[in-house]
Amino acid sequence: MTVATSYAPSAGLMDALQVTLLLMVAAGATAVVLVRARVRQVLVLSAYGLLLALLFLVFQAPDVTLSELTVGSVLLPAIILLTLAKVRKREE
Amino acid sequence: MTPAVRLRVFLIGVAGLAAFYLWGLSGLPGFGRYPGPYGLIISHVAVAQTNATGVVSAINFEYRGFDTVGEEFILFAAVAGVAIVLRALRGERERPPADEAADRDLPPTSDAVRMITLLFTGPVALIGWWLATHAQASPSGGFQGGVVLATAFVLLYLSGEFWVFRRLSPVAVTDAVEAIGAAGFVGVGLAAVVMGLPYLKNFLPLGTVPGAVSSSGTIALISFFVGLEVAAAFVLVISELLDQTLLIRRDGK
After folding, report:
1. Cβ contact A83–B154 (<8 Å)
2. In chain A, where are the structural domains located?
3. Which of A3, A68, A73, A82 has the most B C-beta neighbours within 10 Å, making it the best mutation to test the interface with B?
4. Disulfide: which of A14, A70, B107, B137 matches B211 by Cβ 3.0-4.6 Å?
5. What is the per-residue pLDDT across B177-213, written as a single tens digit (0 to 9) for each?
6. Which residues contact B131 (CB under 8 A, 6 or more apart)?
7. How many domains is chain B partitioned into structurally?
8. Which stretches of chain B score pLDDT less than 50?
9. Residue B204 domain-assigned (yes or no)
């Protein structure tokens, strides 16, 4: 069942968006793994969270987008950064 | 194990995984095709049955509400675990963050960061509250609203106001809010049982206008409780970590 609305983008456009974002997410995940400097890795992870949120949006899951947007790009990086700060303090 | 042997074991594993993966993929239904009956049935009947136009929330807090109770307690147990692991251990004590090294001052938070974070704190808190209380009308819900609300507290900390963060989220209050949120969800379910209905049965009036704030009965109420639980849970995790980073020191250091 498809719902046609005046603001619905064409199927071809949606396909192109979905493929583009899938590729970007694959590239982003690889980037997170390849960056070895810890603090920099957290920043890349945060950007990757944003990409995932966009992916969920173009796959029509706005509820998951809202969760991923905050958890993936704000709260998880904040938690990891705080942990890194604590570990670094202990190493000193 | 020499690197050569390790590489061979790895390659065998990769080949096996790839073979099974491709075999599994070949049996999947076509992209975007949904073969099950439930999704179509629910999207046809959900609005009429629950008066919630946020059908995702109707599914989460009504059709599969019992699963959601379990999910919520996963978060609850995880946060309890974090709090236990990160308590001040023997040989550690909490100390105010000042006077650690009198000779070197922390660089003050830059005005740009302060302004942006303080500017966003209010709107973010409002959006979080709106999301948590409008699950019946929009693709939001308690979890989304809760995490956005918790982000407002993180912004407050980022603005350099750790003590404001602490004053606005005292651990005792945050603990209590988290418990009320978790207990509220279970309590709504038990209230139905007390009335002789099945657990989590929607017993409140559904309202007359689908998607209105007052519609959907227990769906909106449960979403609100989940919002409280999730917001408090994330604020607790962040504040436990802040304690670890800023307050707790080993003795003699």
Report:
1. no
2. 11-91
3. A82
4. B137
5. 999 999 999 999 999 999 999 998 898 988 888 888 8
6. A66, B138, B140, B141, B144, B145, B148, B227
7. 1
8. 253
9. yes
